[in-house]
Amino acid sequence: MKNCLVTGGTGFIGSHLIKSLINNDIKVYALIRPNSSLGINRLDGIAGIEYIESSSKRLILNKSLPQFDVCFNLAAYGVNYEQQNLNEMIEGNVKFLMDIIDFAVINNTKLLIHTGSCFEYGINEGKEISEEAKLDPQSLYGASKTAGYIIGNTYAKIKNVKMITVRPFGVYGPGEGNHKLIPQMIASIINGTKLDMTLGEQIRDYLYIDDLIDAYIKLATSKSIHYYESYNVCSSEAIKLKDLGKILADICNFNEKIFNYGAIPYRINEVMYFVGKNAKIENEVSWRPKISLRTGLKLTVDWYKNKL
Which of 97, 127, 196, 229 has its CA 20 to 30 A from that of 302? Predict the structure, then answer.
């Protein structure tokens, strides 16, 4: 890889990806919305980024850009539960991808790596979720990401754009949004304020951010991937949220009673077991997570202690 385009680069995952690409001496072009400063501070201090201030629709008019070896699409709307505007979801998770595919045609981009979501799978029956599992989203966000995947795959085939989809599970680490569970739990401990939670019996699959970035790089440079297919990127290790709280409390040498389990009810249609299966990406590109949950949580706690 020499030249890469990153959309959604000011987000949690995108900013970590850009840092890694820059550290590997890859020229990075970051597409940002006109007059937008949202999240740009995540990229402060990183030299060598070429910013492209443009809408996705107008990107196709930019004739000065080099041919990209890879376009990483991480732009999305609805990751934050407060983002519930359906029109924005369709625009950000479906139409935006179509614009990027149109650009890839003109640019002759060699590979498009689209970021989907584990929430495309929805409810399961207590088994590890493989890429063959039924897509059955239970939220508008999951539904819009599923629509983007289905329409995007078809459109990319028609336009002869080589594309794969990454579906991350439970990604956490330094800089994750404060609306997410792990940052809230860490802030609760650091600030000494109780955090109201459910009973914490939900079982989840968590992956440290550096392992996800490693997966992106391996997929981008592999000659054995299958185009127009999806790849789960996950730890495949199940943990109850209550046990997650125990680990965090132990790392911080704090009483786990700071977490007020049972104070709030489960969501309607709460998925109690949500764990991915990573056999496909392991077999095809020899990727496996390297960072244990405890180590990743310790790194995350240390980062937040310096920020809060």
Answer: 196
> What are the tens digits of pLDDT across the range 5-24?
999 999 999 999 999 999 99
CATH 3.40.50.720 fits 3-171+207-233, yes or no: yes
Count, residues in the chain: 308
Give dist(CA 306, CA 118) in Å, integer. Answer: 31
Phi first, then psi: what are they for 160, rounded to 5°?
60, 40
Q: Start-end ranges of CATH 3.40.50.720 in the chain?
A: 3-171+207-233
Q: Which CATH class is domain 173-205+237-275+290-307?
A: alpha beta
pLDDT score of 37: 57
Cβ neighbours of 20 (radius 10 Å): 17
Structure tokens at 305: 């202690």
Q: How many CB atoms lie within 10 A of CB 123?
A: 14
Question: Which residue is listed with tokens 């991915």?
Answer: 276
Is 190 in contact with 304 (CB distance < 8 Å)? yes
Alpha carbon distance 216, 164 (integer Å): 11
Helix axes 293-307, 241-251, angle to 10 degrees: 60
Would you state the pLDDT for residue 78?
84
Between residues 77 and 36, the one the model is more confident about: 77
- HEC per residue, 136-159: CCCCHHHHHHHHHHHHHHHHHHHC
The label of the residue with tokens 């809230």 reads 184
Residue 38: predicted pLDDT: 58
Q: What pTM value is reported for the model?
A: 0.95
132 pLDDT more than 80: yes
Whose tokens are 């609306």? That residue is 179
Integer CA distances (angstroms), 91 to 7, 54, 141, 212, 283, in order = 14, 15, 12, 26, 35
| Rounded to 5°, angle at Cα 258 from 208 and 238 | 35
